[in-house]
Amino acid sequence: MTITQYLNTFQKTLPAHVDMVNILDDYIYEKEKNKGDIKYLLQFQKYLKHEYGFIYTDEISEDLFKRFILYHIPKTASFLTYNKSKQLLKELGFFMASERVKTHKNIKRDYNNVYYEYLEEFPRIMQLQKEIKNEIGYPVVEFDPLVIDLLSYRREKLLDKYQEKSPIMEQGFFQVLEVFGSGIVIFKKLFGSEMYIKLHIGRNIVPYLKKYDIIHMRISRRLFFTTWNLDSVKSCYHKDALSFLKV
Questions:
Q1: Helix axis angle, 105-118 relative to 121-135, nearest 10°?
Q2: Which helix (H) or strand (E) holds 214?
Q3: Of 138 and 74, more confident
């Protein structure tokens, strides 16, 4: 075997080191040029650049997609509804099936595994988050376009003043242990000293809530009361997001 033949054989055995971020950038550019909807792809682009900077295609795994769907989106896209969440999954699927991505068969396979596993649960969590924030009067009604409810905004400011006088307050990640049809929910606080609370939520929220869901929230109660009040919610997470959460 000649040196040239050896080098050609060696090069064929090398992994295809292609930056996934560059592939996505090119895909978004072409889609935008053709007047396509890119807002969900921009979410994925932001995630890749923030979490990885760049990542080779042969380094992509199911864990990357799970972290995006179960942790990043609930944390950064509060008012993604059930239908919009499904559209996000669908748009990502189109990208995974594109010419430059589908040649890397492991990527499409890994995404499809995550897609089918959370096709219903991810939209449910996002709708749960939206319903809870609507229930407590979260001032931002919609992010795209930005819509603010001024009455809810004033309520939140008054609540901040009330909380300064509230004798007992807690905040952090709480996991659902029991859900009752009356709207009473039993939670266990995660990451810290063991603590169980009883919280009353709106009955309209109950259909979206499941055992072991996780809610990052702030709660308060008065002395001699056993039921806590839900003051604010940052994000809601599926139980499988537990490994991605930070104290």
A1: 50
A2: strand 214-221
A3: 74
Distance (Å, rounded) from C-alpha 168 to C-alpha 7? 71
Percent helix, strand and coil across the chain, each rounded to 5?
50, 20, 25
Which pLDDT tens digit goes with each residue over 47-68? 999 999 888 888 999 999 999 9
What is the spatial distance between Cα 242 and Cα 230, in angstroms, rounded to a whole number?
A: 21
154-157 long-range contacts, Cβ below 8 Å, gap at least 24? 156/232
181: phi then psi, degrees, rounded to nearest 5: -60, -25
User: How many C-beta atoms surround the C-beta of residue 38 within 10 A?
Assistant: 16
**Beta strand pairing status for 146-148 and 140-143?**
antiparallel
> Which residue is associated with the tokens 């308060």?
220
